[in-house]
Amino acid sequence: MTEHPTxxxxxxxxLSLKGVSKNFGAVSALTDIELDIHPGExxxxxxxxxxxxxxxxxxxxxxxQPTSGTIRFEGQPVTMNGPADALKLGIATVFQDLxxxxxxxxxxxxxxxxxxxxxxxxxxxxxxxxxxxxxxLAARIPSVxxxxxxxxxxxxxxxxxxxxxxxxxxxxxLDEPTAALGVAQTAEVLNLVERVRDKGLGVIMISxxxxxxxxxxxxxxxxxxxxxxxxxxPDASNEELVGAITGAADNAVSxxxxxxxxxxxxxxxxx
Length: 271
Ligand SMILES: Nc1ncnc2c1ncn2[C@@H]1O[C@H](COP(=O)(O)OP(=O)(O)OP(=O)(O)O)[C@@H](O)[C@H]1O
Description:
Number of strands: 10
Largest sheet: 6 strands, mixed
Protein name: Various polyols ABC transporter, ATP-binding component
Structural class: alpha/beta
Keywords: ATP-binding, Nucleotide-binding, Plasmid
Organism: Sinorhizobium sojae CCBAU 05684
InterPro entries: AAA+_ATPase, ABC_carbohydrate_import_ATPase, ABC_transporter-like_ATP-bd, P-loop_NTPase
Order of helices and strands: EEEHEEHEHHHEHEHEEHH
Bound molecules: adenosine-5'-triphosphate
GO molecular function, one term: ATP binding
């Protein structure tokens, strides 16, 4: 893992959640979530199916509104009534489906949804900006005039990430960016995620792949049944992470946790 320039603990959080809950009717999808994201850090959000990861990402993307709790952006409490509000604040999201148009080329996809932008119809300016964004990510795209249909899974993810950087966000959320990618493409996308972090953005990455998470994350935040269930350093063992994710009652993880709770705080799990 590359060294990053700022120590998250010394910088103010860009995004800070306190006591965020979300109910869908009688279903409590999230309860009292606490989460801080600092500039220049990758926070992995992990949890089993139904743990609340997507709900949390949708709240931060402005798709859902929390039932209660406070979201602060750069210290100010904010309300996001829709995805446009999140984008305007500087929170970009790359959803798992990527939302790319197969038949359009890379430039058109990067500028998709920017129809009202002054430069939208300036083909040369758009192409130049597309190359800039891709070069910043050191992305390997053969031509920005290729239709998306001819690109690999990793290249598509790259285009979707480049597009999310167009509006110069401060936070980027990536939902399973390496799902369904092969080994080499996964490595390439993880390098890309690190470059986004090294630009000083706060990155939230949802993943089910603990190897990927440990490879790039600065902190691993576990959700279980809609609640915070521990924050781990990337050197946490698989056993610790799986224990927190599944809540396995009698295993090395729970025994370690009870041992730790009766002694001094440790560097490892902080449930
Ligand atoms: N629109 C909705 N209406 C009702 N319940 C919902 C809605 N969205 C999510 N839920 C419920 O909220 C809980 C959390 O779901 P969520 O999709 O956020 O979990 P997840 O961690 O993203 O799971 P997965 O890894 O399977 O995507 C689940 O019990 C789910 O059924």
